[in-house]
Fold:
Amino acid sequence: MALYSEKVMDHFRNPRNVGVIEDANGIGEVGNAKCGDIMKMYLKIEDDIIQDVKFETFGCGSAIASSSMATELIKGKPVAEAMKLTNKAVAEALDGLPDYKMHCSVLAEEAIQSALEDYESRKKAD
Amino acid sequence: MIYADNAATTKMSETAIKTMIKHLNETYGNPSSLYSIGQNAKEVLEQAREDVAAVINADPREIYFTSGGSEADNQAIRSAAYLGRQKGKTHIISTAFEHHAVLHTLNALEKEGFEITLLDVHENGIVRPEEVEAAIRDNTCLVTVMYANNEIGTIQPIREIGEICRKKGVLFHTDAVQAVAHIPVDVKADNIDMLSSSAHKYHGPKGVGFLYVKKGIRLTNLIEGGAQERGKRAGTENIPGIAAMAAALKESAANMDKNAAHLKARRDQLIAGLKEIPHSALNGDAEKRLPGNVNFCFEGIEGESLLLLLDDKGVQASSGSACTSGSLDPSHVLLAIGRVHDVAHGSLRLSLGEDITEEEVDYIIHAVKEVVTYLRGFSPIWRDLMAGKKEFIL
Structure:
């Protein structure tokens, strides 16, 4: 049996939405190098719709795949809907993750939440 | 495909496979039986014992066949510990970067009341004999130090440590799983009391190994039952496996010098090539290391994704990252030589096989460079390092 599902391997080998958004209005970074996983999410939100999303990840195959899948799940969606993204939804969209890799999907959820919170707090500051 | 994970396991040699199949077919008798096919099996068993003993300069009666290196480590350490306890000696010395077969046995003994000292292996991954000597106390019953490390390949000063132990009257065990058949091992010249070895590290089958125990040292059984292995390891002997191990060992030992010279040249070619990758570092001493072992850390990337992408390019290797160890911590070996977590996660071990070519090493170098560059391209750590927001460690 393979370590990962074909979908995980596809998102790992060909990650979607990789990179940086220079004029992002919501940025979130979670994880730490000590544990071996860091995810950074960049959001470009206009009229409360996520127009663009990009990510950078330091981590294992499932961390990269989870980041990639999470960006796909929220791209083009209203902020309120993206807020509801769960790690379970990320893992299910990847056709499952091994038990000991579930924390990668949790990180993806947290990275999105963190970027959305950054967007909200910037909005309030305006 | 380039298989570069020979420290994990090796492909069985043709000789070993042929020997194994021959005995699976022909030597089905039980060596404990009195009739001829049983006695034939006994002959095969004792010939294998002689062959194995000859390679490490031991007496055949000092060889006990086991299920592999882990069993041999467990039995050697427990035996020495219990012998010590009878004399009130309950202190054991080892190192911080032993194989888990040793470390976990020591943890178990600690719970039974033994006191364990783990020596520093320093930045170069080599134990200092004078520190072994200084750590020995009146109640020390065992020193156990691996011959060569399984991850970073560093070769330990076994002969010097053995000499110290002999002088102090302390038993000395070495886990030589990575060393036997790869570098010269001589239990007499090296002053070794007990030594563990595993067949699948030198092109023999999995599930078989041996323990060398110097005459006069009483073993404790891990497996009770029949009188096999001089009463010290019960269970009907794995004749095909044992014979195949002996055949593989004889062959590897006969070609050792030639293989080692070839491997060292390819190893050094690989090290030189990977050193060109910026912010990388070789783990362990550059000279005193196994002929086929290369282990690097690359800053800003994680080992598992590196391995998966190398596999896509046809290169099989291993890593000491947390994700490949199944725990949250990276390799205890890399931490023991002072690598911090951040870079230990980005480690790569390539352990070359004897048939590796110069062109294949060039291909590996090229593949690793490509993958490291690609992964750094979207690593937030690498971005911070390059932007000067974080300081490079390597």
